[in-house]
Amino acid sequence: MSDQGHGKHTATEGLSAASLAVLEMLPWYVNGTLSEAERAEVEAQVAVCEVCAAELRLERQIAEVVAEESIDEIDARASWSAIAARVGEDEDDGADDVEGAIADDRAEAVAGPVGGGAPIRPAEGRGASATVTRLRPRNLITRAFSTRGLGAGAVTLLAAMIAGVIWWQPTGEVDPSGTAAGPGFVTLTTPSTVEGPSVRVMVAEGVTIDTVRARAEMHGLVIADGPSSSGVYTMTGPSVAALEGAAAALAEDEAFRFVTIRTQE
Amino acid sequence: MGRALTMVATGAGKDEQTDAALLAAVAEGDMRAFHRLHRRYHSRVHSFALRLVRRSDLADEAANDTMVTVWRQAGSFRGDARVSTWVFGIAYRTTLRALRRVARHEGHDEVDETIAAPHTGTQMVEAAFLSRDIASALEQLPVAQRATVVLTHHFGYRLSEIAAITGLPEGTVKSRMFHARSRLRELLAGAAP
Questions:
Q1: Measured distance CA(A71)–CA(B153) in Å, rounded
Q2: Would you report the helix, strand and coil content of chain A in percent, each value rounded to 5?
Q3: What is the C-alpha to C-alpha distance for residues A53 and A42, in angstroms, rounded to an integer?
Q4: CA–CA distances in Å: residue B54 to residues A64, A181, A194, B51
């Protein structure tokens, strides 16, 4: 390897200022982030400076090794569960702020959400005992509620109400097999018969109970109710934090059209 | 009275959001946006941390702490740098903190980022294939120098971005890289048969 320029050529001591400047730029010449002018400067100096050329060869070899170094990837899902639990603890610590946000959200549910970009939320009422809010870092809870976006909020509220009506269909009671249907009406916003915190999902077309069960197990949840004839399942989990983490993950899943979380009755 | 009911639409309309938009949503408490941001960054942050500390338990901890900090501090992002630069800056500081804590636990009075990662003390560079020589030599570098090398050649960051991530002037970053290459050259020369 000595012919590759790895020898102790302490020759940098005698280099010109131009060469020294180029030596400092070599890493970013190799990774391709220098400007056009800087690249030209490097190339011009390397052409006339043997030490610079040797250093460039070494830098390329270093880059190749570092870029190709293989490190086992970790399972991001496991990490997410742990992180969601910690974030959930933050939320629990900020219970007062959350309660304040609930009041804001009630007002928002009547007047329409503000800010324009809020996710679709269910209309409060229709017998539902849960209130409506989003998870927020403690110090930012009220920031979303400005005076903007009332029109968009009204549209969102209307859409949620219409959706609730559309989903309001005769549905089955608890049916773990997913093959029978009984009396009752279940939508995403009707009160749950399941005690305690839960996640309720509406599946996309063609999604079977086996798929739902597998997804639930993946996130540490169990199916406690469903499916209704409109494809609504209710799931429970070991903790509110676990439910919150799972809900966020399920919301990313194409198998589900909508996901709600009810952390307390 | 219920505390929270979060409802999020999924499926259609899943437009690719920019990192900045996701971070803004996270600042507003959008868990779904945070989950997306986690999917985009966690493995990269973990990979970065692992390349610095070479211990999976510390890397796991650093990566998770980084993402929790992203959640908590999202509102402080000013938009004067790329989100990835901001996230990696958090990851860099978090990883160094983890290293310092381990060093203190192992009896060192104080540790700074000029030390090598904990496990590399007795490792010697062996004369073998060039790539292995370089990889081994990289292990001998102090953490701060290795971080600069990794940010440059594995993650492809610009000089200015590495300065932002490490909180150092660009001249210091250049100097670190220069010294890293000099040190590698010495190690490789020592390993040569």
A1: 15
A2: 50, 10, 40
A3: 10
A4: 19, 55, 46, 6
Q: Using a CB–CB cutoff of 8 Å, tell me whether B11 touches chain A.
A: yes
The ipTM assigned to this model is 0.77
Restricting to A residues 158-177, those with a Cβ less than 8 Å away from any Cβ of B are: 160
pTM above 0.95, yes or no: no
Structure tokens at B46: 């973990």
CB within 8 Å of A244: residues ≥ 6 apart: A84, A87, A88, A91, A135, A261, A263, B6, B31
CB atoms within 10 A of CB B50: 22
Report the Cα–Cα distance between both ends of chain B, in Å, rounded: 75
- A196-231, pLDDT tens digit by residue? 888 888 888 888 888 898 888 888 888 998 888 778
Q: Is B70 on the interface with A (CB under 8 A)?
A: no
Distance, C-alpha A44 to centroid of its chain? 47
Q: Which residues of A touch B186 (CB under 8 A)?
A: 8
